[in-house]
Amino acid sequence: MKKSLLFGIMLCMTLTANAQQDKDASAGEQSLFERITKLEKKQDYFHLLLNLNNSFDVNQGNGDFQNAKFNMRQIRIEAKGNINETFSFRWRQRLNRSTSPTPDGIDNMPSSAIDVAGIGVKTGDVFSMFLGKQCAAYGGIEFDLNPIEIYEYSDMVDYMSNFLTGANFQFQVHPNHQLQLQVLDSRSASMEDMYGQGYEQSKVPLVYTVNWNGSFGGVFNTRWSYSLMSQAKGYQSHYVALGNELNLNRFNAFFDVMYMREGIDREGIISGIVGNNNQGGHLNDAEYLSFVLKAQYRFSPKWNIFVKGMLENEGLSKDNKDGNIRTIEKGKYRTAYGYLAGIEFYPLKSSNLHFFLTYVGRHYSYTDRAKVLGCENYSTNRISLGYIWQVPMF
């Protein structure tokens, strides 16, 4: 895994980036309110957006047909606005998730329904901050995109807890370079729900992130970060994410490298492969390494094609003791591959609405130490036909 990490960082240096900074796909479009009333909205106090990703999926597993169904993958409603030059607000909620507060959660918020809920404060051209529930300021180009635009996440990002409560301080140190310092609750669920049994709660359960967003002439852009998380008493997690994007006229590509070493296996991938220890908790010293590469070409104003590849190594950085029964040895347990290709059609010149046809393939290859535990290699395939639209309601 160390050799893969070194290779990934070297390759990362040769590629490039443009951090999206969570920009709206519908920015600049007329809202439905304006179209219906024929009145131009003059103020910036309130914007209402509806985020949709809906498709018809045909799924296959290990070469066998599984099902075909309609799937509303994403439906999120968002409201935001600028009260004045200093204060702003933002709220985004997933409508197909439970809105009940997570039992024993430390922030009294539903862990899966509310993405963002808070206020922004801008004191000038250099300093601003956001207070409330928000997305972690982790690096990676794909991580910063609107979730409705993602056809398939890597395992690492898919299993992460990304929306947490806290504060984000932003420093525009240069017109093209921004630093973010963020402090968040490290979890929104209870200790047992997050890590299982056998761990003592940390008195300061926080995650600290430093993030750099850079732009070099708009051609090469970066979104890099380092995060330190307090998981439980005596256990910490370290996470490094290096996002790089290249923009050349109608061609765009990004390359993300993500590495995580966890005192407790927060993702739960390795714990699921090996089996929980005899105390019912997650395994310790989990290690994840992920590479994501995507390239797309807008060969026509209305047509876009893309390909994407993902490679992930998942294992343990140290031996684990399963009580007095056995030793779970360190090393790699699984390699996950992902491969996507698709075409997108934008029918309206003044709208972000686009229809898509995509193929998504995944293959999971287990090492001998995992196969001894009963794991077998398997593959999945999916063809999806659907649409994505961030609808500007008001």
Topology readout:
Layout: H1 2-14, H2 32-37, E1 47-61, E2 64-82, E3 87-94, E4 114-122, E5 127-135, H3 155-158, E6 163-174, E7 177-185, H4 191-195, E8 206-216, E9 220-232, E10 235-248, E11 251-264, H5 269-274, E12 284-300, E13 303-316, E14 320-322, E15 326-328, E16 331-345, E17 354-366, H6 368-371, E18 378-392
Antiparallel strand pairs: 1-2, 1-18, 2-3, 3-4, 4-5, 5-6, 6-7, 7-8, 8-9, 9-10, 10-11, 11-12, 12-13, 13-16, 14-15, 16-17, 17-18
| Strand adjacency order, main sheet | 1-2-3-4-5-6-7-8-9-10-11-12-13-16-17-18
What summary fits the major beta sheet? 16 strands, antiparallel, barrel
CA gyration radius, whole angstroms: 22 Å
Number of beta strands:
18
| Structural class by SSE content | mainly beta
> What percent of the residues sit in helical stretches (DSSP H or I)?
under 10%
Mean pLDDT: 87
- Tell me the fraction of residues in β-strands, as a range: over 45%
* Shape field: globular
Element string (H = helix, E = strand): HHEEEEEHEEHEEEEHEEEEEEHE
Distance N to C terminus? 49 Å
Number of helices: 6
Poorly predicted segments:
2-21
What does this 3D model show about the protein?
By secondary structure, the chain is mainly β. It has helices at residues 2-14, 32-37, 155-158, 191-195, 269-274, 368-371; strands at 47-61, 64-82, 87-94, 114-122, 127-135, 163-174, 177-185, 206-216, 220-232, 235-248, 251-264, 284-300, 303-316, 320-322, 326-328, 331-345, 354-366, 378-392. It has a 16-stranded antiparallel barrel with strand order 1-2-3-4-5-6-7-8-9-10-11-12-13-16-17-18. A two-stranded antiparallel sheet has the order 14-15. Mean pLDDT is 87; it is low at 2-21.
